[in-house]
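# nightly structure sweep
# worker-07 picked up a monomer target from the shared queue
# config: single-sequence mode, recycle default, output format = structure tokens
# input follows
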Amino acid sequence: MKKTLTILTLLSLCSLAWGMKIHDRVHSIDIGKNNEEHILKLESGRVAFINSDQPPYYKPSDFPEGSWIELELDQKLTIKSMASSPPADIIFPPDNSSESPEQTEPTVLPNYASAKKIFNGMNRSYKKNTECSDRAHVWAYEEWKKNDLYSNKAFIFFTNTYIRAYRFYWWFHVAPYTLVKEHGTVVEHILDRKYTSYPYHTKQWTDVFVRSKKECPVKTYAHYRANKYGKEHCFLVKSSMYYRLPLHVRRMEDYGTIKTKFNNSEVNFSYRAFNRRPVLKN
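# output follows
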């Protein structure tokens, strides 16, 4: 029953995407080969397909990385219309951070019951149509404030091979995870309050989204970018709880931009996904 509900939730997300106007920022466009459709990846994690040989014709160069667009999709996630759009009113001041954490190592919970208690108390007031990066960031922040939990983030990056094979609607998904002592060892448990009903083991969690049930090797974001056309269907990339987007993980890997605190402006922005919206002052 729980598995059926999860599948229905995923299908409902797909139906939400088509027929509605989406206002988002371009992350990248992966050019198709041999008349394949181009894959448009949006900053939110959504995916859309651009016909390369049928109208309407869109040149990828007209929509560079970082540009804001408004688009409408059909039932197959193919773009029906797309146009440049004014940017959203988003301002992130330079690293005006919250109070400095005294602990940098992730928390290791003493048992599964502790993880389940935290999971059951996680904020479920998120709105229906929300982004995983916003939910994950608020959950990580709130559990740090409430329970002194220093969690990490698990990013699943879906390869172009998988996206094309299954017409999948995301190129990444993210949730917090915590470490738990279990049967004499330390085990990761994913805290994805929207798509699971209890803390899942990592492979159990990735199987919710990876329909082929293939393993997601743990790699770097750079490895994913270099191998997104390969045989794998997904990769797992791990970070601390302070990294909100793949962009932040990339800056860490490529430029050594390390986050050691929550940025209050980013946390405030992520609260757009929730009905309960505390305002944090920088």
